[in-house]
Design a protein that fits this description.
Layout lengths: L1 H20 L3 H20 L6 H21 L4 H23 L7 H21 L7 H22 L6 H27 L3 H24 L3
Helix pairs in contact: 1-2, 1-8, 2-3, 2-8, 3-4, 3-8, 4-6, 5-6, 6-7, 7-8
């Protein structure tokens, strides 16, 4: 089942990128929606050894699905709603991660400082271009930084399976990095290269998190 999901996702992602490059929006939005539905289906298809983790993570995936649809629509209102949906998704991921996290140790705190410093630099990079979106973007940067720090705390829990911890951390990191390309596309320089790098990172991150549901204790 997981292999079939991965193969289908790769094919759909290739089509999404193709139609984005050709600017064929009539095909882009339906295909992107199906691709995002697939990471929700991937989570539902996994064993659920930790029900509370599954419940919050699934909620995050559903919010991100809504965000995908909204951000693909034109207009500032759709963008704001999409940003709100992704903000809710990040908060749901934080709630999922803190239930199974074990923060502490020099590595965790060093990595946390690095995340906070990196996020501060990202916001400073974006700030001159934000205008009235400054507050919303600041809240979003805070949320995604918290999500990545919470994933670092999951990685430090030796009571969880190494493969599950790796999936959580890698998924959160890919999601974090993908948002840099979203921000660049929206506020700094619109270019296909943002989609070319950002979309694969985003979907890799979401599918890794979805698959972590069944691997977190195995």
């Amino acid at each position: 089942m997981n292999l079939a999901i991965v193969i289908a996702a790769i094919g759909l992602l290739a089509l999404v990128l193709f139609f984005e490059h050709r600017q064929r929006r009539a095909f882009y939005l339906p295909l992107k929606t199906v691709l995002s539905l697939l990471f929700v289906a991937a989570a539902l298809a996994q064993p659920r050894p930790l029900a509370i983790y599954f419940n919050f993570l699934l909620g995050g995936l559903v919010f991100c699905l809504a965000g995908d649809v909204l951000l693909a629509l034109p207009g500032q209102k759709a963008f704001r709603l999409g940003l709100g949906a992704f903000l809710a998704g990040h908060l749901a991921y934080v709630l999922a991660f803190v239930r199974i996290s074990s923060p502490g140790g020099a590595v965790f705190w060093s990595a946390t400082v690095a995340v906070l410093a990196g996020s501060a630099l990202v916001f400073r990079w974006l700030e001159p271009f934000l205008g009235r979106m400054r507050g919303a973007v600041l809240a979003y940067v805070a949320a995604i930084s918290t999500m990545l720090i919470a994933a670092l705390a999951v990685a430090g829990n030796d009571g969880l399976a190494p493969s599950g911890r790796a999936l959580v951390l890698a998924g959160a990191l890919c999601f974090y990095l993908s948002d840099l390309f979203v921000a660049r596309q929206r506020f700094i320089a619109a270019a296909f290269s943002n989609r070319l790098f950002g979309l694969p990172l985003y979907y890799i991150g979401q599918f890794l998190l979805a698959f972590s549901v069944g691997r977190i204790l195995q």
